Amino acid sequence: MRKGTSAALGLVIGFGLDRVVGDPRRWHPVAGFGSAAIALEKRTYADSRTAGVVHEAIAVGSVVALGALAARGGLVSTALATWTVLGGRSLAKTGHAMADRLESGDLAGARELLPSLCGRDPSVLGADGLARAALESIAENTSDATVAPLVWGALAGVPGLLGYRAINTLDAMIGYRNDRYENFGWAAARVDDVANLAPARLTGFLTATLAPLVGGTFAESLTAWRRDAGNHPSPNAGVVEASMAGALGVQLGGRTQYRHGVELRPVLGDGPPPQVADLRRAVRMSEAVQVAALGVAVAAQLASGAPFWRDARRRRG
Residue 123 — pLDDT band, cuts 50, 70, 90? Predict the structure, then answer.
């Protein structure tokens, strides 16, 4: 079997495992990486950007090196790595569970579930606020949890899959602007921004293309993206949230309550604030975008024949 075909099949099998099985319930490698990163931070931490760069290089570099060794396992390694780093099924499942609780009026249960999606303060949110928070998180995590890993898997095989997940996990751990991580977490946040530039824009394009599936149009989604995304503080979250808002015909952003305080986020899209029914539409859109992203990744893999890092090594040899 050609390497490109094997890698493409590995992506498909890994995607299927995520859809059928979901995240591993015990001994999840991402959780293991998080524990290792915490232990490493105890040795590398200092209130400086240089220390943060060293921390990022060691943590991510180690995972990429491990991925390069694991890649020798071919199809099996690619399938297992893909399954490990994807989180699409869990994202959709949580989105549906949030909608179920909101529809039944179980605000306490919805508030309890929200931290698994985002870092906002659920205690101050009503039903509409919870729906908006969940919807915005689903939009952003469609890119982070599925599209981006598939893009990096197509570009760089197993090292790309594992390396991206390490980058994204570190950003979630230390990429904050607070007293402890303002400097130390700078590298983690910037590297994550760069790693997500292409995936976020692919997510935005696929969202606009598939907008008719949820009653929207390509033009409305693209308009919201072009007009509003640049106002968002994140170069990537703005793209995926604005394109989702346009596709659904709702308005996202505005006053956003986090545990550390209130932020006034830019308005994204036109229309009314999202309702529970819009949250279910967002989940459907997320699942459609994930499948489309798999198709793009597989097509790219078949066209290239092999991850580019392997081709480059062959040319140097």
Answer: confident
Residues 273, 284: contact at Cβ < 8 Å? no
pLDDT digits (tens, 9 = 90+) for 216-238: 999 999 999 999 999 998 999 99
Its domain, for residue 183, covers 3-316
Q: Are 304 and 7 in contact (CB under 8 A)?
A: no
pLDDT value, residue 2? 65
**Which residue, chain included where needed, has tokens 């790693």?**
195
Q: How far apart are CA 201 and CA 171, in angstroms?
A: 19
The one-letter code for the residue type at 217 is T
What distance in Å separates the CA atoms of residue 163 and residue 65, rounded to the nearest whole number? 9
Q: Using 50, 70 and 90 to split pLDDT, how confident is the model at 30? A: confident
**What residues are paired with 268 via a beta bridge?**
252
Scan for tokens 């949580």, then name that residue. 94
Structural domain count, the chain: 1
